[in-house]
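User: structure tokens for this one?
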Amino acid sequence: MAFVQEPDRALGRSWLVLSLLSLLQFLIAVDVTVVNVALPSIGGEFGADAAALAWVVNGYALVGGGLLLFGGRIADLLGRRRLFLAGAAVFGVASLAAGLAPTLETLVLARFGQGVGEALASPAAMSLIALLFTEPAERAKALGVWGAISGSGLAVGVLLSGVLTELLHWRWIFFVNVPLALVVVLVTPLLVRRDGPRAGGRLDLPGAALLTFGPVALVYGILRAAHHPWTDPGVLVPLGAGALALGLFVLVEARTREPLVPLGFFTDRTRAVANAATVLLSAALSTTFFLATLYLQNVLGLSPLQSGLAFLPFCAALLLAVTRVAGLIRVLGMKHTAIAGLLCTAAGVGWLARLPVDGRLWIDVVPGMVAVAAGMAIGLIALQNAALHGVTEADAGVASGVQRSVDQLGGAFGLAVLVGAAASVTADAPGGPEALVAGYRTAFGYALIGVLTAAAGMALAARNDRRPS
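Assistant:
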């Protein structure tokens, strides 16, 4: 009897481990959006304008996204439990530093530190999940839970930001991470087995540096372009430096014996298309969070607390959709489920692209946000499954790092490009709410084009896979 129960006991332990890994991922996801509602309060305390405050949002995503591939490679070489523990510790310390930050510059540096913590912990955790749950059905279910917790963290971040900023102080949006990160650090050794012997290897430090610097430089140039001509040296120099860094990254990876990510990794068409689609979907999602929050406060006149509460229908739709993803994948397959999620997101973004100046929350905002929530849950989880297609012990960390990296960097680039487009339209329009809304509509329109492009790419990949070889 004991022998019969052993698989159930092992599976139960796996789900306990998943719960622990998901707790830190929840904190990481919360911190992607938790600063949005608090930005006016942070700017008021430090006397910072919108351009400076943008780094509080994007700095975290850029450093985290730029180093995620490096984190995935380290996890494969040095051990996933070690890296997960190190990332949790760095994330907790950086959160404490952010809460205590005496200046805006210190706060941005602390946000960079949170990004480093994410880059170490997130790919390690995701690869642990991929290796713990080897059966396709169980892996889909586990990644569904992971995606639900991550996605709900994005929404809860907005809600938590409004509650803590209005009832306590904006610094508490960072302080709440500290005790939970400590729980993760203390409990992980009790649940997660020690790492086994690791194969030797080298770390691609030049590749990691180039992949981190390139996106930061590009986003800096894009954000400056919202208020300066494209021919301004302050725009051209960082854009050129960023593009050069990314070009050098490709060359370094092609010539390095042990690259950060082997370029041959992308010869798997399913992985390549899934990661490309993730970039466009994440760009739309990050823009939706940012601009919807601004619309609620700057146009509809809601308070930070009211703005946070307005995201409750989003959370409910997200959680409901997540319960259906595993079933959809079984019936439709990964690619067609991803297409369904992308089309649902497109419907929501399209609804938000028609935001009026005299809008009403339950008619003009909530329906679009609910559709985006459902599409986000279905699309991202299906794309995560597709991005982990065919992974092994040797490359699970790389696959996880790539997926998380394109997710983060796609969101950061989307925020920079689309919010920059919105700012340009607003600057050229007459003042007042009409100018703001014109910019928001433009950004949502571009986001819609991106999501539809991703859906078309996934549809083409699915059609080609049905052809005889």
